[in-house]
TrEMBL record:
The lineage of its organism: Eukaryota, Metazoa, Chordata, Craniata, Vertebrata. This is Oxidoreductase NAD-binding domain-containing protein 1. GO terms for cellular component: mitochondrion. PROSITE patterns: FAD_FR. It comes from Camelus bactrianus (Bactrian camel). Pfam families: NAD_binding_1 (PF00175).
Amino acid sequence: MACTAVMIPRWLQGCARAICTQAASWRSPPSAVRHLTLSSMMKSRRKTDHLERTADVVRREVVSAAKVCDTADESPSVKRLRLLVADKGFSFKAGQWVDFFIPGVSVVGGFSICSSPRLLEQDRMIDLAVKYTNHPPALWVHNQCALGSEVAVRVGGEFFFDPQPADASRNLVLIAGGVGINPLLSILRHSADLHRERADKGSGYEMGTVTLFYSAKNTSELLFKKNILDLVNEFPEKMACSLHVTKQTAQISAELKPYITEGRITEKELSDHISKETLFYICGPPPMTDFFSKELEDRHVPPEHICFEKWW
């Protein structure tokens, strides 16, 4: 691959050769893109560096400049960024993540996109939600990032939902732990966009039902609560959610209470949704993804119907 195939923002041009070499080594065969088998996805790569940990995962070759145009606190420990990506060559599928390049920070971040592809198509914007840690990219987001900050992004990941109009209708079960909600929210939002398109035009992909199971320590750590409930209320016959809290001490608000279960997501809850038309997407800490993937496999869910991603 020639280095001219990679678009490099001006402040990254000094690193162009290194980025180009890395991009070449990260390319995976086209057959890897749609569904991953359990055996390939359950390899636990416990490396702290995002680029090392995802070295064998499919990536786009284009690095695109982006500018921070909005920030907000989603929880006491999570900050949301909205990025403007003017490059028309930049696109992603619901569930994918970005390599996140920051001027002056040598470590590259890896953050899931939590907005839908439609937001990018219409407004050239994407949303990320970053949990506070001591990892340099996360520290930069929480301590230094400001409106107008310039960064660069590149799309990667094999965990996505991207049905084509002629594909068979599928139900989705989304299982999230903590900040693992990010790619699943992108999929939930994309599913809502597909429902709207079908209702408006009478054509396009026919979505089945979508059920979200989402677990966090307490309600303050349940991210995007209003966004999730707004979608459930917009599509009451098509979308449902079960929000779980494991260490709740404060009183639960009246608005949230109908959707809250105190305790972990159970195998029984998932078994009620198993069918040949259902795809399962899981994102959370490695023990959680391993547990539910194995549980579904033991209940004879085909491996190609189980997709998951682990975040460390």
